[in-house]
UniProtKB/TrEMBL annotation:
Keywords: Coiled coil, Membrane, Transmembrane, Transmembrane helix
Record protein name field: Prohibitin family protein
Domain of life: Bacteria
Coiled coil: 188-215
Length: 271
């Protein structure tokens, strides 16, 4: 019985060491993540092989695995930038991004885990200052927000693409102008809208007057044509036709042929 502890102690030590070894030699990488392998005795960060994907992995206990989130992420940034005429503009923007999966080792080696603060945010701020500086406050407030959003995205992507970062989108969420400038722009826009409305009413009245003029000219031409076609013979013929029609009426009347003006029939009724 006294020998059992002596025999069991080495076994127990081996079991403990085995558990420690296994715990240090295994790693589980979650969904949306990838691991960068660091070989302590083998050249440091592994950059010439794909990162460790999701799931269970065995690694030597003296090596390390640095886990990165590789799904799309979003970062927010509030900036103060200057317009083309030197006025201070507050810009609220966000970016959708993710690390370049196949170059994750290079990202870790050259930029580190804090790559968002070191690379992405400074690039967004620089691009925003450059782009906004091309526009006036009025353009930023009204018609150019989509344009500056696209330009900030393109300039940022051009830089971070070489920094092992995949930029998916830049969103300009809000542009805040100084209150006095905003009021002046809104007042000008209202005046322009009123001027456009007045111009529309004038154009409508002009077209209506033109329509009436054309209508009147048409009627005048028609009357001239009609007057030119009504000769004395035609008028007498029309008068005779009208007299014949009236004579067929059941009302009592007296028709005196040739007694009217210009020899037209004269109809005398009961009245």
């Amino acid at each position: 019985m006294e020998k059992l502890p002596k025999i069991g102690l080495p076994v127990l030590i081996l079991i403990v060491l085995g558990i420690v070894f296994i715990s240090k030699s295994t790693i589980t990488i979650g969904s949306g993540e990838a691991g960068v392998l660091y070989k302590t005795f083998g050249g440091g960060v592994v950059t010439d092989a794909p990162p460790l994907g999701e799931g269970f992995h065995l690694v030597a206990p003296w090596n390390k695995v640095i886990v990165y989130e590789v799904r799309q992420q979003e970062v927010f940034e509030k900036m103060q930038v200057l317009s083309s005429n030197g006025l201070e503009i507050k810009l609220d923007a966000s970016a959708w991004f993710q690390p370049d999966y196949n170059k994750l080792g290079l990202l870790h080696q050259q930029k580190g885990e804090n790559y968002v603060a070191r690379v992405l945010l400074p690039t967004i701020r620089s691009a925003a200052r450059s782009v906004v500086g091309r526009y006036t406050p009025e353009q930023l407030y009204s018609s150019k927000r989509d344009a500056i959003q696209k330009e900030i995205f393109e300039e940022t992507k051009k830089i971070v693409g070489d920094q092992f970062i995949q930029l998916n989108e830049v969103l300009v969420r809000d542009v805040t102008l100084p209150p006095t400038i905003k009021e002046a722009i809104e007042r000008k826009l209202r005046q322009e809208q009123e001027a456009l409305e007045y111009e529309f009413r004038l154009e409508k009245a002009r077209k209506e007057a033109e329509r009436q003029k054309i209508d009147a000219e048409g009627k005048a031409v028609a009357n001239q044509i009609l007057s030119a076609s009504l000769t004395d013979k035609i008028l007498k013929e029309k008068g005779i036709q009208a007299t014949l029609e009236l004579s067929k009426s059941p009302n009592a009347k007296v028709v005196v042929v040739g007694s009217g003006k210009d020899g037209m029939p004269l109809i005398l009724g009961n009245q």
